[in-house]
Every structure is written in C-alpha cells, then in structure tokens.
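Ticket 4471: requesting a sanity check on a complex prediction with threonylcarbamoyladenylate. Repro inputs:
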Amino acid sequence: MTVNEKTLALSSPPGEARVTRQLGTAAADLDEAGKLLAAGGLVAFPTETVYGLGADATNPQAIARLYAAKGRPSFNPLIAHVPDVASALRLGDFPPLARKLAEAFWPGALTLVVPVSEASPVCELARAGLPSLAIRVPDHPVAEAILRAADRPIAAPSANRSGHISPTRPDHVLGDLAGIIDAIVEGGATAIGVESTILGCVDDSVVMLRPGGIPREAIEAVLGFPLAEGRDDAEAPLAPGRLSSHYAPEHALRLEATRIRPGEACLAFGLPLPEGADVALTLNLSEQRDTAEAAANLYHHLRALDRLPAAGIAVVPIPRQGIGEAILDRLARAAAPR
Ligand code: TXA
Ligand code: MG
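Returned structure tokens:
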C-alpha cells in the first residue's frame, strides 16, 4: 500500500476495525512509520522506557483517535516527544532549572512539564487544555528515527489500553491494541521497563510528579538540593495519570510479603525464595537483587503472573533506592483498591 492509499484508509472513523501493520526496524520501515504518523495515523514504537502509542501532537483529529484507541479520558494530557534537545526547547518556556535538567538528562527517561511556549504547535487537546506541556526526548535509535521522519512533535502515551499495565514488548502492545491501531514498529524488549520520571518545572521549583527511569538521586545530584514532592489530590491531580488505580492487574496484589500463602503466586526479588513460595507460581524480578534488571522485568512478570490460576500475587519487599522508587510506586498503584 502506498502512503497515499494509507492516508485514505486513515480517514475511517475512530474505533473502526483496521489491520495493524507490523513493521521492523529497517530504515525504510522507520520512514514509513514517520509518514503514517504525519498522515494522522496511530503507530506504536519502542522507547528506552516502554512502548509508546504515537500520534501527531499538532493534529486534533489524530489526538482524538489516540484517546479513543486507548480508552483514555481526554482530560489526561499527553507527553510530546521530539528527537533532540533543540526541538524540545522550542515547545516550552524552560525555567533555568528545567534547562539544566534537559541538558543533563536528554535524550533520556525524563519528562519535563514546563509552561507551553507561544510558538508551540502542540494542539490544545494533546495538552488537555493545560497551560503546561510535558516534553521528552527519548534515548532510543528507533524512536529517534521515527520522530525525525515524522518531522513534528509526536504525542506518545504508553501503548496500552487505559488502566492496563504499560507494554515493554511488542506482544504486550498487540495484545491490547491489535486491530485498533494502524501499525507497530517491533523493536524487541525495552531496556528500562518503567516509564520516564516526570518533573514539574512550571515555576522556580522542581516537583517530582512520577518516579521513573531516571532515579531521584541522579536528579538531586544535578540540582544540588532535594526534590519537592508532588501532592496527589484526586480532584486536581498534578499528573492526572497518577490516579491510584492506574496500573491494574486482575489478581489482587499483596505487598511486602515475607511468607507466601497456599495458592498465591509470588513476585520474588533475589534468592532464596521466601518461605511458602511455589516454584511453579513464582517469577523472580532479579536473582542478583539488581533493581535495574527488576524494573526491566516488572511489567512482563506481572502480566505473566496475572494469567496464572492463583489466589492472588504476593510481592516480596524491594529496596527503595534508585529505580526501586519507581518499581514500588507502580506496585503500590497496582495494589491500590479500585
Ligand atoms: O516513559 C514514558 O513516559 C512513556 C513513553 C512512551 O515515553 N510515556 C508515558 O506516557 O508514560 P503516559 O501518557 O502513559 O503518561 C504520561 C503522564 C500521565 O500521567 C499524564 O497525566 C502526565 O504524564 N502529564 C502529561 N502532561 C502533563 C502536564 N502538562 N502536567 C502534568 N502531568 C502531565
Ligand atoms: Mg501510561
């Protein structure tokens, strides 16, 4: 199919069934992915954190289709992705500390929320009407090539149905979105495995809105002072997607478990396994107690345990240092009552 035919196919209404094309990572495929995005299509692609579901951030029709495909409420704003720091700096009015963080961590697993710039072409729907904009420069050669080919900011939430766990492998994306999106670029498992760290920089302060791939310690080392905490308030959440039941497996999660109950599946961290663990119902995030390896395995293991006939999932204690903070944040949300 040529890009022109594809453009016509894309004019079908949101929600209508379509064939999801599976693209590889050859240069021609990445170019095609960029053209599909520029034509208003929905294309999933890998980043170093999780797979994103891309749409043209300057095109309100494409963004409306994106919200519909995810089943995501349109009051939850999206992150604009661009291929380099210079493009990112044009989208927002960066306070000095935000500029310092951008230079230290981009490209990388950091999202900065800054006041939207006058010149920003990102449509209001992608920002959910907010005066601020979340921006990220991903550190992944496939994502970078697609963003360059699209030649415009691309909104990319995690490529899962709203309320599901974020995808770290192509089959996770297809399980949620096959037949709903136009294409996926299949680039293997993502290296970091949890979403980017989100910092709010709308004034002179820097506020932690979501712990993620870049650890708090690394950010504080650049800032030279401790990060302020974002307070979550259900009426007006600072990062609307932080609502507590966001990451929702079918099974109930029991955290800080030191003994596993009969019939419970176990999400382990290190060896030996906790007392009572049934090996057939256990997955280990990292036998060596490496939190980076644990983050990379987290969502895949949670999905796998969630499919087992089990009485629930018991999760052993995990240290809060480094990326451990993001792992514990996601587990706490997955365990939250809903
Ligand atoms: O690692 C990531 O960040 C991935 C990859 C694909 O880049 N993307 C991702 O997007 O996790 P999403 O939409 O699943 O999560 C973005 C979060 C949401 O919780 C949203 O509420 C918050 O960012 N957000 C976006 N714009 C915001 C803004 N202006 N102010 C506060 N929070 C914002
Ligand atoms: Mg998400």
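Notes from triage: Residues 157-158, 166, 241 surround magnesium ion (ligand 2) (CB under 6 Å). Leaving this open until the requester confirms.
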